[in-house]
Amino acid sequence: MRGAEGGGPGDRAGAETGMGGARHGAGDGRDAGPRPVPGGLPGTEALLAAALRAKGADAEGERRALAAFRAAREAQPARAARTRRRDDWRPRDGRHPGRTLRTALSVLLASLTLGGVAYAAMGGGGGATADDGGPDRTRPPAASDAASVRPVATPPGSTPGPGTPAPAPPRVSTSPGTSAPPRVITPPDRQDAGRDTEAQCRAHERLAGHGKVLDAAAWQRLVVAAGGAEQVKAYCAEQLGLPAGPGPSTGAGNGSGGSDAGNGGAEGSGTEGAGAGTGADGLVGEGSVGDGGVGAGDVVPEAGDGGSAAAQVPDGNRP
Amino acid sequence: MGQRGEPRRVQAHDGELGAAVARAQQGDEAAFAVAYRLVQPGLLGYVRGLVGDDAEDVAADAWLEIARDLGRFKGDGAGFRGWTATIARHRALDHLRRQKVRPRPTALEQDVLDLPGPHSTHDQALETLSTGAALALVATLPRDQAEAVLLRVVVGLDGPAAARVLGKRPGAVRTATYRGLKRLARQLGADGVTDDGPRTLGEST
């Protein structure tokens, strides 16, 4: 109390007049009303703000500021006011969306590319499956060495592993004959699947009416393959009865469909090569999707060298 | 931590301030006056914490620059507080540099004489804290804490904005604010405001 009186008549009258305002919270005029005090050190904050915020706006200062404003306004047209970095106080939230939008777009592009690649890979495989060809139906023939390595990486998961293709192609590309290994990898599965179907069909014929079959997972698969429980019979008849059965299909299918399959495989793997490059790119550095796209464009025409080129793109980007 | 309270309160006027600034940027003089009246109390308080008695002159210099560069500014009301605080701070630091060459007693040393006596309770301190006493109190803090407290409490900036004004990391400024306020609260509550401490805020550049 005593201090309040003691400080009042001090030299800085303007500053001191409002000290009662500290108590009443009304001393600062309209822009410093009583403040909410959500825990912590509210009293201190309120106290300091009330004591330190200048009380009222001084007319003299305002007059000078307005004069400066007018002067600046006159001069303004002549001078282009460029916003410097330190003049940009827009909230960060306002600037952020741009960045996130760009990121989202890159991600979208990358996923589209990868999806397309996966689809292409499946398409290549699917075309081959149609003739149910044996081992030969894989993509080796046209697909030159570089591309032929890729199947190793691709089939298991339809997304090409980004890392794998990079080191492999250059090495293999020197030895075109080595397209054998990839051949071995995929077909067995498909063949097995075909045999499975036939086996299931036979089992179904034998066990039809014995109830329990219906629960087996294999049976479920058969149903799915046939397109419905009712269709199973017809499906099986087709599988077992028609000459396109297991034995013939391997040979005959190769004869006619083989070339087709080969072509499909080549295309598929060519695209894959491109895609693998893109994928690696996308993972290595964001925003380089565009590069990946270029890489893809390069690769498709010439599968052999393009493949290795695609493989090298990510390498170059890595550092 | 209670640090949200002050900015929120000031933010109540940030919409009004933002609109006024936008109109002033179109050349509306009355709007500029509104912005001045909204910003000046906090700005002057901050500058006073930095340079003491010369605050009015320094603030006037700052307003010259603010008026001149208003066209460059981009942002809302809260941004305008931060922008003006940055300008005022630069003017204040310039002033202090000049003063260092030609030293003279600062206001803070005068104000120490005006300090109220020791108080046993926070309430009592709250009743009697004058501007001079508050300045002296703030001046007992290390400079980074003092500035952080002033920017938050007096200018009404939030943590990130205060950090930008000070050119520091938000985390560091948050910590400084909290420590400073805690220390001030302790002094106000327990020790009273006559605590001896370094009163070199204005000179510790």
TrEMBL record, chain A:
Record's compositionally biased regions (Gly residues): 1-24, 248-296
Pro residues composition-biased segments: 153-170
Superkingdom assignment: Bacteria
Chain positions covered by the region annotation Disordered: 1-43, 70-101, 128-202, 246-319
Residue stretches of biased makeup (Low complexity): 70-80
Comp. bias (Basic and acidic residues): 85-96, 189-202
UniProt name for this protein: Uncharacterized protein
Origin species: Streptomyces hyderabadensis
Organism ancestry: Bacteria, Bacillati, Actinomycetota, Actinomycetes, Kitasatosporales
From TrEMBL, chain B:
Pfam families per the UniProt record, alphabetical: Sigma70_r2, Sigma70_r4_2
Gene3D superfamilies: 1.10.1740.10, Winged helix-like DNA-binding domain superfamily/Winged helix DNA-binding domain (1.10.10.10)
Keywords, in A-Z order: Sigma factor, Transcription, Transcription regulation
Domain RNA polymerase sigma-70 region: 36-100
Residue ranges constituting the RNA polymerase sigma factor 70 region 4 type domain according to the UniProt record: 134-184
Keyword Zinc: no
Keyword Transcription: yes
Highest taxon, organism lineage: Bacteria
PANTHER family reported in the protein's UniProt record: ECF RNA POLYMERASE SIGMA FACTOR SIGK (PTHR43133:SF66), RNA POLYMERASE ECF-TYPE SIGMA FACTO (PTHR43133)
NCBIfam families: sigma70-ECF
Family (UniProt): Belongs to the sigma-70 factor family. ECF subfamily.
Protein name: RNA polymerase sigma factor
Native source species: Streptomyces hyderabadensis
